Automatic annotation (TrEMBL):
Record has Transmembrane as a keyword: yes
Main location: membrane
Matching PROSITE patterns: ABC_TM2
Source taxonomy: Bacteria, Bacillati, Actinomycetota, Actinomycetes, Micrococcales
The name this protein goes by in its record: Transport permease protein
Native source organism of the sequence: Microbacterium oryzae
Entry membrane topology: Multi-pass membrane protein
Membrane-spanning residues: 59-83, 95-113, 134-161, 167-192, 204-225, 273-295
GO terms for biological process, alphabetical: lipopolysaccharide transport
Length: 306
């Protein structure tokens, strides 16, 4: 069956038509994270699917987004704060604890969901082509949406402790959220690509998520680490992007509630915080690049491996 026609020149021969193919994409190959802007509609659909199916057939529904972090906070507050006396030297420990937990929970959920995003959407990956990066990005976006109820609780509690918002504080919070999202996406892309072929990657991710809560000043003050460690160990600890994000959340929500004359906890950011922040930003950028490269490397065999 003819699909078209060729123009015939005077000699009766088919003339070759020159067509500009620069506007056409090679099938099955995208432009990585840049495709997010071109495929915004599909990204919205994936985000809507992720939020709609999270609490499907659940009686309480979105109430669980408030209940689970509330119970987690209560357990840490009672066990670490009172049984182990971890609240000593930290004024308004509930705000300090919950601000750190909110930041770490955002990282853990975004990182975990983006790691399994390809495997969880295997039906779509095997049947149709669309930029595979949309799945980890949508997972991070869904984690952010589920992070908002926890942030709302933190805002209410902070207001009860006398917190007043400032432009600098809001900016620090947004910077902390951006660091967490970039780190979670970079690590998620890296492990999502590997996880399709080697499911052991998911176990590594669970270990990282378990350690992240304790490897940042959430249940304790960073000064305790400074007392026990020094040199490159302390610098490595403070350069952790999650640690930086937690301290930015502390500075936004906890610091304004601490009296100026309180001597239990040092005010302001840790020493050399600007240097640590710069290192954390560079680390997130490098991890994003490595994650994208690794993801693209394994993307070629996603359909076969699934």
């Amino acid at each position: 069956m003819a699909c078209g026609f060729f123009p015939i020149d005077e000699a009766g021969r088919a003339a070759v038509t020159t067509i500009d193919l620069s506007e056409y994409d090679v099938p099955g190959r995208g432009r990585g994270l840049a495709d997010v802007f071109r495929w915004r509609y599909l990204l919205r659909l994936l985000v809507r699917k992720g939020t709609a199916t999270r609490y499907r057939n659940s009686v309480l529904g979105w109430t669980w987004s408030y209940v689970k972090p509330g119970i987690q906070f209560l357990m840490y507050f009672l066990v670490v704060g009172y049984i182990f006396n971890g609240n000593r030297g930290i004024t308004n420990f509930p705000i300090y604890l919950f601000a750190g937990l909110v930041a770490v929970n955002f990282f853990n959920e975004a990182f975990g969901n983006s790691t399994t995003a390809i495997v969880d959407n295997r039906a779509l990956v095997k049947k149709i082509y669309l930029p595979r990066e949309l799945f980890p990005i949508s997972a991070v976006t869904v984690a952010f949406i589920h992070f908002l109820p926890q942030l709302a609780i933190l805002l209410v509690v902070a207001l009860l402790y006398g917190w007043l918002p400032t432009f600098a504080g809001i900016g620090a919070m947004l910077l902390g959220m951006a660091l967490i999202a970039a780190l979670a996406l970079g690590l998620g892309l890296f492990f999502a690509g590997i996880n399709v072929r080697y499911r052991d990657a998911q176990n590594f991710v669970e270990i990282i998520r378990m350690v992240s809560t304790w490897a940042s000043p959430v249940l304790y003050a960073w000064t305790l680490v400074a007392e026990k460690a020094s040199g490159w160990v302390l610098h490595l600890y403070m350069s952790n992007p999650v640690t930086i994000a937690v301290e930015l959340f502390h500075w936004t929500f906890w610091e304004p509630t601490v009296p100026v004359d309180a001597v239990e906890q040092p005010h302001g950011f840790p020493p050399h915080f600007t240097v640590y922040l710069t290192v954390a930003v560079v680390m997130c950028a490098v991890i994003l690049i490595i994650g994208q490269f690794t993801f693209r490397r394994f993307e070629r065999t996603f359909a076969q491996d699934l």
